[in-house]
Amino acid sequence: MLRIEFEDAKNWLDLLDAIRDIVEEAVFTATQEGLSLRAMDSARVAMIDLKLPVVYFPDFKIEEEKVSFAISVADMVKSLKGIKKGYRLVLELKENILRLEFIGKGRHAFEFPLLDISPESIPSLKLNFEAHVKIETDIIGNAIKNIEKFSDYIRFKATSDRLVLHGKSEKGRASSEFLRDELISLDVIKECEASYSTEYLMNILGRSELSEVTSIEFGNRMPLKATYTLAGEGEVSYYLAPRTETELE
Q: In sequence order, what are the beta bridge partners of 92?
């Protein structure tokens, strides 16, 4: 038996949106410590790592030591589009059904069949990043949108006093530069730069529904990690593989 309550149902809907942009089907794992998910997209370019500790939830009940369940995130997002603000959510796992009950102006129940998918064994990534940046989510999101019009990839460069993003193509070039005092924090162990897919960055950065602040970490020819700290100690992290020099030619 698994029963989880969200004080604000919108939090669950926002998380589904964040997951759907990486994978359409996902396997969640619940333990005595909380709810988690780790999944990679089909191209093996991006990964999402979700951690929601027990303290994140007003109520969290699990009888077994560990329970995994798979759902079609894409189908659930489509089905729940009519749910607006002002609802609590109770999520219950019953045999092969995931039941969601939204409680607010009335009670609205939805049942989704579980998918027959086993959890994929994806090891956690332990990387020694060379640049650590904290920036307002809306600001970095707008920078990505501006450069997206000019290039299929965006180059990130960090120095001791600034973060620079730029992209170019036959359409022209665009860049955004942030000095140290324009960032929440900047810690650069070694000057570094790497390029990443604009399409993936559009899905990963600028998610202000998750947090007003984004932590970005990267390094020379290293993946980019973007982390959103949720209210109640939850965390959503994305990892994005760098574009290789061959791809950029």
A: 3, 99
